[in-house]
């Protein structure tokens, strides 16, 4: 990877961190409502995996911690922020909010609140890719906790038998809300669990984007070559609470300190400095330009955008312009009484 | 008599029932070490231990099934599901198993489980956290479905539900956990059946359940100021429905409004109007009116959400309509 790509990647991760932290502030100002789950600390995973995918073409799907996946997949940051603000210009036109970012124009097929729900949806996206004979794949990002849903097991089995082109990315941040993984899960190494379904898998450090990218390259090559699904597990940690109301009381300060030291931005930034790709001053300038972009362009766009119109409450419930041939009602001559 | 919050009332019922019977256990996500999403089991893990306050994985259908199995063998599980939306994952074990086991065994088996879950809209939680779904459970024979409107019923109905030999679904509300109300200091059981007249009146009956009772009460206050004596009826149980209390009220007031937080289609209001037509059609002086949510998934945007969910003014407007005052 050349120096300009490395700089771009570092800036992207800084951007994602600042985007999340800025939405935290907007939440405190009550400009964002509902549930808000931040991705801070896990940036290397979505950034690294999707760097190796064909964004815009490959399908991407995830849970409710979805802002960064949407952004890296290609959803415009203005629209994602506007969605958090509930605005008409948002990715989901203000109807979905933080947990339900969608951008089908780049094949980002959504964030879902129900834990485990995206597994079968991802396999379905992959089934469509296979059926159409394109070289697209589906990539499903979910947490460790999701693997205890029935959908995990059922989907792994079908994806494997049907050799579906789907990459399952497990972001193992060791907790499902307040429950530590070993208290809920018999096999804590998640990559081992899919052996039962004959799916190849591996486990890697999720804090180091170079490791993430190397692992993703192999996994994606496997899936794209038509050999069926692959399951990749990354060990990581969320720096903030599960959502805004969570104080992390169940985690030890020592554990948090150790993981904070393994901040993905710091690991990559230090590496690039050491390799003389950039200096501390360059990083500071990058931080500054990111902050300005977020404040002056992205947040501003969200704040200045209009709310959806209440008169449009029923819009999007069903197709607004259905073909009457399929919808009816029955015409006079069509009654067979 | 002390004033306590709704969540404290639930916690107290758990505590008393756990102390009373070793067969009582609680199960659910984050209810133990983390103390419960709504604090309804806070401190109980420390008091009763991991064998009785069981933190489950995110496996709703199967841990509900495990609760059902345990109940068939004599235990009394209280299962917390974080949101009624997630209870959809447990429908197979709840509806295909729990609701039918007594019947299809010819009365030889039973499953006395309690499933507690909040089933209302909170603030901007969007479509996948805001479905209310009470109407789905109330249509299932073999279940009991109750909807405590305040701390007293939240406490007393949970206690009765634990003792009762049928599967009981208790529908709580995310916006009510901090609501306060009086609960007697001595142990109290509240019946799982029977509507309650929570405010007597002669001019119009406002029927609600769960949170919508409070919308009816607020509307009744405004009506009183206009010289109208509204009667407010809390259904308390959606299954079975207390037909007698509804009939008696309608025979007195001759006018009805039904307030439901859910969508109207195949809903609580539809059922209540059918009951009224069957029980006392000729007592009606005006067409009943339903106050209900818009027939759409709940939107995230704040104004849109407000527009989708009924409020006290909607109940008031409906009452004025049946009274012919508009
Ligand atoms: C079906 C369902 N059950 C429960 C919940 C409540 N819930 C939301 S997130 C979560 C934990 C998920 O943990 P994990 O999969 O590890 O993802 P993380 O939040 O750690 O990224 C739970 C239990 C839910 N949203 N959906
Ligand atoms: Mg997790």
Helix content of chain A: 40-55%
Helical region count of chain A? 12
How far apart the termini of chain B lie comes to 43 Å
Any idea what the CATH superfamily of chain A is called? Thiamin diphosphate (ThDP)-binding fold, Pyr/PP domains
Using only C-alpha atoms, the radius of gyration of chain B works out to: 20 Å
At CATH level 3, the topology of the largest domain in chain B is Rossmann fold
Description:
- The complex is a heterodimer of chains A (about 325) and B (about 325).
- With about 325 residues, chain A is of the alpha/beta class.
- Chain A has one domain: Thiamin diphosphate (ThDP)-binding fold, Pyr/PP domains (Rossmann fold, 3-Layer(aba) Sandwich).
- In chain A, about 45% of the residues lie in helices and about 10% in strands.
- Chain A has helices spanning about 5-30, 45-50, 65-75, 75-85, 120-130, 150-160, 180-185, 210-225, 255-260, 265-275, 280-305, 325, and strands spanning about 60, 110, 140-145, 165-170, 175, 180, 200-205, 230-235.
- In chain A, strands 2-1-3-4-8-7 form a 6-stranded parallel β-sheet, sandwiched between helices. In chain A, strands 5-6 form a two-stranded antiparallel ribbon.
- In chain A, helix 1 packs across helix 11.
- The radius of gyration of chain A is 21 Å and the shape is globular.
- By secondary structure, chain B is α/β, with parallel strands linked by helices.
- Chain B has 2 domains: about 1-185, Rossmann fold (3-Layer(aba) Sandwich); about 195-320, 3-Layer(aba) Sandwich (Rossmann fold), CATH 3.40.50.
- Helices cover about 40% and strands about 20% of the residues of chain B.
- Chain B has a 7-stranded mixed β-sheet, sandwiched between helices.
- In chain B, helix 8 links the parallel strand 10 (about 205-210) and strand 11 (about 230-235).
- The longest helix of chain B has 15 residues, at about 5-20.
- The radius of gyration of chain B is 20 Å and the shape is globular.
- Classes of the chains: A alpha/beta (about 325), B alpha/beta (about 325).
- Chains A and B meet through loops of A and helix 3 and helix 11 of B.
